Amino acid sequence: MKQQMQKAMLTGLAAAATMIAMPSAQAADGEAIVKKARCVACHAVDQKRVGPAYKEVAAKYKGDAKAPAALFDKVRHGGSGNWGQVPMIPHPADKISDEDLKAAIHWVLSLD
């Protein structure tokens, strides 16, 4: 009985450790994706370049449940006016896949 309790406790601790490590792995993936897709040519984490800083984007959309879909459309189709007069060019699926774009947006929105 004691061994079963220890085994159950170790299994629970291992699961918790995995859950704790996942956000940092996802963050690394999101950051790698924006670098690979060359989003960093116009954006940086904490400073404005051609486009807004990722942290500014996260702050603007904090708590907005519709933000991921709206940002997906904005990145995919491009646009202007939300952050100034410089337009954001469209980024089609051959430049960044749907899956990678969703992961990148998730990463951006997770920044504080």
UniProtKB/TrEMBL annotation:
It comes from the Bacteria. Pfam families: Cytochrom_C. Keywords: Electron transport, Heme, Iron, Metal-binding, Signal, Transport. InterPro entries: Cyt_c-like_dom, Cyt_c-like_dom_sf, Cyt_c_ID. Residues 1-27 form the signal peptide. Residues 25-112 form the Cytochrome c domain. The keyword Heme applies. This is C-type cytochrome. It comes from Dechloromonas hankyongensis.
